[in-house]
Amino acid sequence: xxxxxxxxxxxxxxxxxxxxxxRLRQGVLLVLQEHGIxxxxxxxxxxxxxxxxxxxxxxxxxxxxxxxxxxPLSSDGDDVLEGEIAISVDTALQRAxxxxxxxxxxxxxxxxxxTLHLVGLSDQTPEDRHHMxxxxxxxxxxMGIVCPEEIISVASxxxxxxxxxxxxxxxxxxxxxxxxxxx
Length: 183
Hints:
single chain, alpha/beta, Collagenase (Catalytic Domain), 4-stranded mixed β-sheet, 6 helices, 4 strands, about 40% helix, about 15% strand, disordered C terminus
């Protein structure tokens, strides 16, 4: 499904041998296509909580692990969308068990979420989070996946840690579950 115009490079930096990289790539490509992105180079790293914690501390001064971090590398108006996404397999394992669905689905949700940030979606306000949830559910549905009700129906006004003014190079959450709590 990778095209000449869209390149998605995936690097599994964990001992998990069962990561379905083709499925993650398909989710990223669907987001790019849905949002009319003609050309893109996306790097997706599958990492541990320790590694994502280190990135979160280094780039955002947040001293905790999170589920997903997105780093846009291109600027508005560039011909090619470039960005990096890091997703935590450890958090995915924990949350998948909590919500009683497959770890592969949780990882896919993180990849989709990170890509939505790269194409310009935000989740800083309740309205933004609602819009983000809609797009996540739409992409998952196109892949034949329905989110567990607990993920899509819990409402939350929990504030985000990332300051949209000072932390514009990466997106993260106060609590990894906050991403899903607003449908």
